[in-house]
Design goal:
Blueprint lengths: L5 H4 L8 H10 L3 H13 L4 H17 L5 H16 L13 E6 L6 H14 L4 E5 L5 H14 L2 E3 L7 H15 L3 E5 L10 H14 L3 E10 L3 H14 L4 E5 L8 H10 L3 E5 L7 E3 L2 H9 L1
Parallel strand pairs: 1-4, 1-5, 2-3, 2-4, 5-6, 6-7
Antiparallel strand pairs: 7-8
The chain binds guanosine-5'-triphosphate (GTP) and magnesium ion (MG).
Length: 298
Amino acid sequence: MARIGFRSQMGSARRPFAGFLSSLVTRGVDDATWQELEEALILADAGIDTAGALLERLKERAKAEKANDADALLSLLKSQLVDDLGGRNLALSTDGNPAVWLFVGVNGVGKTTTIGKLAAREVRGGRKVVLAAGDTFRAAAAEQLGMWAEKSGAELVRGAEGADSSSVVYDAIEHAAATGVPLVMADTAGRLHTRANLMDELEKIHRVAGKGPGAVAEVLLVIDASTGQNGLVQARRFTESAKLTGVVLTKLDGSAKGGIVLAVQEELDIPVKLVGLGEGIGDLMEFDAAEFAEALFD
Ligand SMILES: Nc1nc2c(ncn2[C@@H]2O[C@H](COP(=O)(O)OP(=O)(O)OP(=O)(O)O)[C@@H](O)[C@H]2O)c(=O)[nH]1
Ligand SMILES: [Mg+2]
C-alpha cells in the first residue's frame, strides 16, 4: 500500500495560504506581510486569538533572527509551527489488560470509521482487537461497526438496540480479558435515545469500563475538521467533562482548512494524535507536525 501523506491528501487545507504565499514570493517581506498572514490564518479557521498569538511569536523571532526575506520568513514560520504543534507524545497507550480506548464526539464526525481504520492498523501490527458497539442509538451503528470488524480482522461485541452502552462496553472488556485480547476499542453514540445528558452517559461508560478487568488507556475526541470553529465549540463541551487523552481530526482531505489543527491544539490544549485523510481503511495517519507544516507552506 502506498503511504498516504498530508501533501497529497490534504484537500483544501492549503488554499487559504495561497495568496499570502504568492505575494510573499513576489514582493518579499513588507508592511503588508504580517497582516496578510494573519488574515490567511483566520480564513484557515485558526481562530482570531490563536492567529494573533502565533503572529506575535513569529514577529519576535523574525526580529531576533533578522528573518527579513521570503525564504527566511517561510522557514521561520514552518519551524514555529513545528515548535507549537510537535514535541508531544502521540503514541496510544496500551496500558491495561485489556487496554480500553474510548472514542467520543458528536454524531457524524467519524468515530466509527476511525475505529475501523485503527483496528486495521493494530491487527496489521499483530495485535488482537475487540470492538465494542457502545453506540446503541440505532441498530445500524452496530452493523456499521460490524462491517469494520470484518474488514479489519477484529472481533465485534454488540448488544441490542437501545441497550445500556456501558454494559455493552463492559461485556466487550470481559470478553477480551477472558480470551486474551489485549485491546478493546469502544464506539460511543454522538446522541442518545433517551433524554439523558450525553456527557453524563460518557462519564458512566468511562467509569464502568474502569471497573472491569481492563483499564481505560485512551479517551479520544473525534473532531470533524471541516466544521471549523463550530467543531471547536462542540469539542469544548467534551473537554469539560470527559478526561480526554487526545484528538483525532478527521476529514482533513475535504473542505477543511489547515488552521483548525492550530486552533484545536492551542485552544483545547490536547494533542492531535491522529488525522483522518479519507474514507478508506488506510486513510489514517499519526499527526506529524513537520510534514504538516511543509504541506501547508511549501
Ligand atoms: N473524507 C473523509 N470522510 C470521512 C473521514 N472519516 C469519516 N468520514 C466519513 O464521515 C461519515 C461519518 O462517519 P462515521 O464514522 O459514521 O461517524 P460517527 O462519528 O461514527 O457518526 P455517528 O455514529 O452518527 O455518531 C462517513 O461517511 C465516513 O465515511 C475522513 O477522514 N475523511
Ligand atoms: Mg458511529
